[in-house]
Fold this protein.
Amino acid sequence: MASVTLKDVVKKFGQFVAVSDLDLAVKDKEFLVLLGPSGCGKTTTMRMIAGLEEATAGDIFIGNDRVNDLLPKYRDVAMVFQSYALYPHLNVEENIGYPLKIRKVPPDERRRLVLAVARRVELDGLLDRLPRELSGGQRQRVALARAIIRTPKAFLMDEPLSNLDAKLRVQMRAQLKHLQHELQVTTIYVTHDQIEAMTLAHRVAVMNKGVIEQLGTPKEIYNDPRTLFVAGFIGSPPMNLIGGAVTSGVFTNDGLRVEGFGQVDLPRAVLGIRPEDVHVADATDPRADMVAPIYSAELTGESTLVSVYAGDRLVTIRADKNFAGEIDQRIGLRIAADRAFLFDAESQRRVDF
Ligand SMILES: Nc1ncnc2c1ncn2[C@@H]1O[C@H](COP(=O)(O)OP(=O)(O)OP(=O)(O)O)[C@@H](O)[C@H]1O
Ligand SMILES: [Mg+2]
């Protein structure tokens, strides 16, 4: 078990900068999720930690050891990929036990350890099966068991659940979280699925274009986004981001007027408000910040997602599941400034008020 530390790590492919000046300190036993859109540098970062890719600059530490010049096999980290890369001609027991065979662990001892790990991931009834005789979720657990049996200093998991169907993903997600808690092994986990990130992580590092935009607990990332990118990336449906201007603390755009932003003056502003923080009011309610016709109303089960246009932007409201409005019916919206965020459209950074 160990911490994993990256200091000013850069990765260039020719002239292209895939990862730039990355600083990240993953604590011992921590579950850290790297979250970001396709191409932001997540896999590249993992591959540098594992030693499969050489850092162009910067230092990588596992525990107290600088590992930049260490071959992958000496770094003692176990990687689990999106494609599980099982040996097709070996059965489950042999696949799981493979790392021990390499280490020349005697067969009896190996069998005992494989059984113990297989039980942990509920594969003990399937030890004789070949990978092609397994479901996706079972294969995924074989890959996981093969990583666990190594008792590595850290797990590096790159979108390990992305091949599974939605239901199985949710199930495996809970299993993974429980397992990490039990094993207490430092884990770095890559995903572009923000719900996976929020549910699994102790801390989330939100990456965009090769840099970490924000690092924090899921709560901090959700409640205290520092940039427009983080605000728009986290949340489902995502935060409403409405362009406009702020003059003496009053935000305006076509049709929308929200007071309460202190003394802020910002000619190019973006107002951010989560769907659950916009409230439906009567069209005649004098306290409404805006009145508009309903564009659509979708019942999701636990709530109704109502959308209306504010200028050229659709605003989504998470309303009560019993909301009964019809398309084209005019409704009022109320936005509480103390639940809203302001961003500077130029710098993309949040503006406090
Ligand atoms: N070997 C390579 N040569 C050139 N460019 C590369 C190479 N590997 C990755 N890149 C580029 O570096 C950037 C980051 O790639 P990376 O695989 O780390 O993204 P990612 O965040 O894992 O994305 P995804 O979610 O799609 O897996 C991408 O723009 C990619 O095209
Ligand atoms: Mg990737």
